[in-house]
Amino acid sequence: MTNGNRSLGRDGRNRAGANFVTDRTIRLDGVRKAFGRNAVLRGIDLELPAGTITVLMGANGAGKSTLVKILCGVHGADAGRILLGGQPFAPASPSDALASGVVTVHQNINDGVVPGLDVATNLVLDELPRGALFLNQRAIRARARAIAAQVGLHDLDMRAEVRHLGLAERQMVAIARAMARSPRLLILDEPTSSLSAVEAERLFALVERLRAKGVAILYISHRMGDIRRLADRIVAMRDGAISGRFERAPLDIESAVRAMLGHAMAEVRIDIPAPGAPVLEARGLVLRPGARAFDLDARAGEVLAVTGLVGSGKSALAGALFGVALPLAGAMRLDGADYVPASPGDAVARGVFLSPKDRLQNAVVRDFDITRNLTLPFLRRHASGGFLSRRSERTAARAVVAEMGVVCQSPGDPITTLSGGNQQKVVVGRWLSQPSRLLILDEPFQGVDIQARRDIGARIRATAPGRATIVLATEIDEALEIADRILVMSEGTVVGEHVNRGIDLGRLMAQVVDAPGARAVTAE
Amino acid sequence: MRDFAIRYGFLILMIGLIVVFGLSAPGFLTPQSAVFILQSVAITGILALGVTCTMVVDGFDLSIGAVATSALMLSAYAQVIWGLGAIEAVLMCLAMGAAVGLANGVMIVKLRVPDLLATLGMMFVLIGLQRIPTQGNSISTGMALPGGGSATGTFDPLFLALGRLRLDFILPRLLPLSVVMLLVIALLVWVFLETTRHGRLMYAIGSNAQAAALAGTNVDRYRIAAYVISGTLASVGGVLLAARLGRGDVASGNNLLLDAVAAALIGFAVLGAGKPNAFGTAIGALFVGILLQGLTMLNAPYYTQDFIKGAVLIVALVFTFALSGRAGRPA
Amino acid sequence: MLSRRMFATAAAAALLVPGLAAAEAPAAGTKIALVRYLSTGDFFQAYLSGVEKQAEALGLELQVLDSRQDAALQADMVDQAISLGVEGIIIQHGLTESMKEAAQRAVDAGIKVVAFDVDVENEAIPQIEQSDRDLARLALEQAIEDNGDSFTAGYVYVPGIAPLDRRDETWKEFKARYPGITEKAMFGTMDNPIANSVANQARSVLSANPDITVMFAPYDEFAKGVKIAVDEAGMGADMSIYSADISTADIAAMREPGSAWKATAATNPAVVGEVSVRSLAMLLGGEDPGRSVIVPPTLITQTQLNEQDIKSMEELAAKLPAFAHAEVAMTPWMKLPPR
């Protein structure tokens, strides 16, 4: 019993004594990384001063997650060097990085806590492998309280099981646990993406306390509220390079967003067709409690993009249209008839298709070959009397493979042999293979390279006549590339509408980034 | 080469086994011997095909052994104590099996009880329930009834024929009806899983239920249906068992469960399928049957047979998970 | 509870003092417990019914504790019975290792104990036994009477199960005594349902050894399985099966036209149950039933069953008096269950 006490106490003293070193800046010089021929980081020069919150902004594929992975030891850099307190730093593994004082709190909160254990055990978890055989609960709680106090958390119930805590508290536990290692650099990867406003406020207070303690903080977020609240400086990344540094108060957030998105979006010219008959007419939709009701129309032949930050309500909209979860209020009509889909099956039967986001989780059937993945929703068309016709399936699959430009040896290849971009072509092509009234594509360009993105976008536009198409895209340039008309969502409702011709990007951006309290913007 | 081993390794192993037994055990390579093997695996084979259906939707059914012995007791009770005929008795058993499957499915799908736990609970319920009406006694004609008097009903000859009738095939009176039923059920399950829309959707659910749901599949309904199929096939197995034994024997059916699961798991390795499949399950059952028949003919004691059954299962699982690399990321 | 037990102990002690009291039946309402290890199956069910009937006839209050093959639980159940304040305990089956100390604790608490089919190594505890050696002997003698002392045999056996091991000893003796008996194959399994699994094995054995004419299957589930295989192979006319134990279902199987199941030796499990209670009652009444109480088996042949048209266990007991009642553990005051 006393053993456990002593070992815990000793660790505690070590931590308390040797907290921070003198030169506390983290410096990256010319860090490069490529996967195959695909250069992801093209020479990053970056300083992360101690006691400063640096916000890192970047679109999908800009390279920010690769940068984080190099810092926390998942990947090694191909070139360049990192200095940590003046010492070269090249972690071989995540535990190596941890030992050097680089701590990462990932987006997925449960990566940082063990839900089945109580708060105290979670806080001292890193010390348990080296502790005594028998646990002294009282010593553990005392040590855990000390750890929590270090980061200013005095009101945590040490005996509560973590699975009973809210997301914010779990995150606090994860951060407090990370802080017990007295880190030099704390990386927070979109930490507020699943927190409520009140919960986020608690997190901000904690982050500010850590800043006051002299920790360098790298904060990755798209949320303008977070950025306004916390950022001492903003670094924007684009295409594997730093595209802007903003350090002077007041921070110019709009310029930062512009630096993050760049100007490539203006390159695509969209020919807006004459609008057809209305296909979807939604009136008074309410997607979440307290959100303002909104209307939505989609016309035949038009491609409508809905953009907005993560959590702005795009996926809830898709779910409501596709019968996954009915809206809280409002009425929908499809081709003039009432439309109340009770299930995805109902929606498909009415000609409303959804290509979901997160393909590995929501779309790819790993055990199936390309053909079977393509025909999955439409087996009825390939069956007579319940029996499937292989020939009919193959014919359909060959057509989609050709139209989408899926790079494969044959439609009989397992889907898992394809690259991410080609898998995405398959799961999007799945829904393009049959005519629909309303096609919803949720993040159709997620995790694909620029060529696949162009191919998929072209195919979506080429097949658009005759149906209404709604593309949900977090990235504004994706929306600009594909849409005739762009809706902006925020806080579960539509806050802006733009025709995609000579768009006022500043205004669009302002609508996207405007957090709670943004004034409603009427159509142009 | 490696692909070839994964694909045909198990079938080659089986042929090798047949050759070895054929050389060392006289009488092994005869039509009778082949039929014995099929007959000895008929019941577990049918159960295994049922559990294969639940495995296809990424589920599991631990209650099949208990369903089979419950059907055994029910069919005996219906005929011996209530004096019902073969057709009524069989229909009652099938209905019982389907109802148990439905209860399992609803528990798992609607009430969100994990499959292993739900079917484990059902297994215990059935093992107990089947003994309550007879207070733990086996059922046979002439048995004393709890209320006084003795049971006067008998097994309908039509019912016993299910387990005992043998058809002329090559030799007169060679092929037992139970073997015919195994083959027919194996074929039906294979056709259902491999060539119909429903089977395809069940495989999709087993591989990625979320994706199947977002493709418009009614996932809940298919998962429940899988348990109904499993329960019904288990009751068919129980009926055949009753017809063979000719009495309602009190038994837990745990060995039936284990043998059936082993056959289904060995089936993963056949033709390198790497997933539950009807053809593999049938071959898996046959493989175990050949092995046990050969070993018994060579006078090997029963514990060596368990040992070898286990070894075969492990080899099959290694084939499936290590060699074909399914457990990890795609190659 | 405690004081009541002490009173019972004192009363029992008083009864044991020589000359003080003549032996007499235990008082009606005396509490006894049956602590079981095995309970699943016809034999154990019938045993229980015998215990219940005899206890009722004597007016004893019976508590049944069933450990369902959990050796540790069975030992705990003895302690449970002690704390329930019973005056007598029947230990039915179990393992010597786990029951020896529990039985001693019961004896120390002044409780009368008898044990059926388990040796608890205690001088104060009478052993009730059905003689497995006699069972095997009767069946094998009949086999020799029917087939002469020279034949090719198959033998069904699973080692490690006490009654089967004892029956196996007799089989070995017979093989030694009659060199004409050749054991061509030995097989067996306890896989559930046993009859079905044994039938599968017997099919293989019969096709590998078509010259077998006699099957010794000294457990009725084994015999049933062998009979299924023999019928399926159409060898009923050339095969004779000898077994031990009997049930209503077995009677039907033995009497099927052309049945190869020629004879079985059995003790009526209900009678064994009755004898267990009677022995305990004698102890409670101050008499000694002896260190070992053996219930003699009866030989039942197919011919007997057919001639007397016996269809069930009840008819067997009615028409074969030796099967209905065993004249062991009897005293003048003993009340028997109504027949």
Notes on the protein architecture:
The complex is a heterotrimer of chains A (about 525), B (about 325) and C (about 350). By secondary structure, chain A is of the alpha/beta class. In chain A, the strands form 5 sheets. In chain A, strands 6-7-8-3-9-10 form a 6-stranded mixed sheet, with helices on both faces. Chain A has a 6-stranded mixed sheet with strand order 16-19-20-13-21-22, with helices on both faces. A 4-stranded antiparallel sheet of chain A has the order 2-1-4-5, with no helix packed on it. In chain A, α1 runs parallel beside α5 and α14 packs across α15. Chain A is globular. In chain A, about 50% of the residues are buried. Chain B has about 325 residues and is mainly α. Chain B has a single domain, classed as ABC transporter involved in vitamin B12 uptake, BtuC, CATH 1.10.3470. In chain B, strands 1-2 form a two-stranded antiparallel ribbon. In chain B, a hairpin with a 1-residue loop joins β1 and β2. The longest helix of chain B has 27 residues. The C terminus of chain B is likely disordered. Chain C has about 350 residues and is of the alpha/beta class. Chain C folds into 2 domains: about 160 residues, Rossmann fold; about 140 residues, Response regulator (Rossmann fold, 3-Layer(aba) Sandwich), CATH 3.40.50. Chain C is about 45% helix and about 20% strand. Chain C has a 6-stranded parallel sheet with strand order 2-1-3-4-5-11, with helices on both faces. A 6-stranded mixed sheet of chain C has the order 7-6-8-9-10-12, with helices on both faces. In chain C, α2 runs parallel beside α10. The longest helix of chain C is centred in the N-terminal third of the chain and has 16 residues. Chains in contact: A-B, B-C. Chains B and C meet through α2, α10, α11 and α12 of B and α2, β7, α7, α8 and α9 of C.
Named CATH topology of the largest domain in chain A: Rossmann fold
What is the CATH architecture term of the largest domain in chain A? 3-Layer(aba) Sandwich
CATH class of the largest domain in chain C: Alpha Beta
* Biggest sheet record of chain A: 6 strands, mixed
Unreliable sequence segments of chain A: 1-22, 515-524
Radius of gyration of chain C: 22 Å
Which series of helices and strands of chain C comes N to C?
Answer: HEHEHEHEEHEHEHEHEHEHEEHHH
Low-confidence stretches of chain C: 1-21
Estimate what percentage of residues of chain C fall within beta strands. 15-25%
Number of strands of chain C: 12
CATH homologous superfamily grouping of the largest domain in chain C? Response regulator
Provide the number of structural domains of chain A: 2
What's the total helix number of chain C? 13
- CATH architecture annotation name of the largest domain in chain C: 3-Layer(aba) Sandwich
Oligomer: heterotrimer
Tell me, briefly, the overall form of chain A.
Answer: globular
